[in-house]
Amino acid sequence: xxxxxxxxxxxxxxxxxxxxxxxxxxxxxxxxxxxxxxxxxxxxxxxxxxxxxxxxxxxxxxxxxxxxxxxxxxxxxxxxxxxxxxxxxxxxxxxxxxxxxxxxxxxxxxxxxxxxxxxxxxxxxxxxxxxxxxxxxxxxxxxxxxxxxxxxxxxxxxxxxxxxxxxxxxxxxxxxxxxxxxxxxxxxxxxxxxxxxxxxxxxxxxxxxxxxxxxxxxxxxxxxxxxxxxxxxxxxxxxxxxxxxxxxxxxxxxxxxxxxxxxxxxxxxxxxxxxxxxxxxxxxxxxxxxxxxxxxxxxxxxxxxxxxxxxxxxxxxxxxxxxxxxxxxxxxxxxxxxxxxxxxxxxxxxxxxxxxxxxxxxxxxxxxxxxxxxxxxxxxxxxxxxxxxxxxxxxxxxxxxxxxxxxxxxxxxxxxxxxxxxxxxxxxxxxxxxxxxxxxxxxxxxxxxxxxxxxxxxxxxxxxxxxxxxxxxxxxxxxxxxxxxxxxxxxxxxxxxxxxxxxxxxxxxxxxxxxxxxxxxxxxxxxxxxxxxxxxxxxxxxxxxxxxxxxxxxxxxxxxxxxxxxxxxxxxxxxxxxxxxxxxxxxxxxxxxxxxxxxxxxxxxxxxxxxxxxxxxxxxxxxxxxxxxxxxxxxxxxxxxxxxxxxxxxxx
Length: 652
Known about the structure:
Blueprint: H1 2-7, H2 23-76, H3 83-110, E1 119-120, E2 135-136, H4 161-172, H5 190-193, H6 202-217, H7 220-224, H8 232-254, H9 256-265, H10 272-288, H11 296-307, H12 310-316, H13 327-333, H14 344-349, H15 359-379, H16 387-407, H17 409-421, H18 448-467, H19 469-480, E3 488-491, E4 496-499, H20 503-520, H21 539-546, H22 549-566, H23 570-580, H24 583-597, H25 614-626, H26 634-639
Antiparallel strand pairs: 1-2, 3-4
Helix pairs in contact: 2-3, 4-18, 6-8, 6-10, 8-9, 10-11, 13-16, 15-16, 17-18, 17-22, 18-20, 19-20, 19-21, 22-24, 23-24
């Protein structure tokens, strides 16, 4: 029983000493199985990348054949044409068609047996709380994917001119909305509200402080995620002891007498609702505030993940996990969903943007927002849904808009800088975005035009991920905490990590990728998404990785915007003029280097861990951040108030 396990002195509870002889062999077997599985995953990734490369070459051959056919048609209409030239051009057309067929066949062969993720138009419609929509299966083939597959491949072959023009045209439509907090399609809040956590009230904040304190002193992962356990029973016992120790601490700190009884009787099920509420509050707070609970959240999620296994639940006899409280769930429970479709919702929850506005205008916007909130709380208040609860929903949606402002808007600013300072076709002398393998640490070779498209599509992808981060986070937790799920503790090359598949998150991110590809009309580089392998072991690592995007981009955007202000000082202007040739040239030096080497495929020793895949783009950006101190413009960063990419603040 649970009490016997917790009261055991270690001999019986932790397993027989006879198992000790198999400890080393079991650890070696587990690692070998993990390595074999990783080898299989790598082979599948390589086959997908090769298929993308072959498909890209087939597309180029098709475009070439079309141009040749057009040339032949023009020649046949002329009165005097050399028959030998026509014959040679026809042979080129046949060769192009043969190359297309061969490349298509190679792509089909490479994809035999490879599982292509299904793309859900709703990005995870099967999740709890989300509506079920039509699911379609689409093969996400990038138009120029495997041109970046390896350093040995010549990557300078340009895409057909109309491809890059289509990219520029698709992106041009977004220029006017670059700094908007809410997109035009976001006026109906019904879908968004399904993934927006409710803001914590005062009582919940007290519980949050207690939970954070308990997790802060806990060493759960240090004691549980180790390879020295002699048996499965020993590991489960350790998990239960650590989980119950945290729960006892929570109860004792809240109610001493109840905690005293719990320690004596070990009846944790009697306090099930208390534990579920405490952990749900912590999860909700973290989603709303990604910069908080940096270490505590990981411990909590892994603790809850272990509590969902059948062996632990059988002994605990209750669940520690309950669905996250969202704005949509509260309104659905109390019959107030009509609120989300009210036209006043936008005014009541919009961010007040003060930049470039007189104080009177800002004050007027604030008053309009307050009036809209009051009107909505009166209009939809019922005997079941109070005005305070309606205001809580409005504040929660406002928090989501604030999140988008500080996490999505830096991406919009960098997209604006890319469009403003660089021409997509013709590079300015000294500021070409072209990169070459081996130069400056680059692992890809792109000319200026191709690199421009590669950077733009990467930023667009990051923007869409930031825009859907609450939804992705919701789905990531559903993958991590699904009942009966298992993971494999594996040495991934970066220490022991829990490797676990994430089907809901994977389907959602492939939906985001497909949406980006549809908007852009083409794709440069690989479209492989690493999730559940040694690169991105589980959904928690995936969320943590993309939560770093604003940490990378915001400091760069702030420095670029502060250069003109710095140059108001005569001494600093003299330094900038002498070193860079002026304020505008300084901005271009910073942006050109960032757009070149934060997107050059660097950051790892092979093309499975970095390169041009979806996650490798972010790896390259982090690699650029690690070398910022060596840049010639680093003094400008320091003068602008830069203190680091890990959440450092800028001077006001």
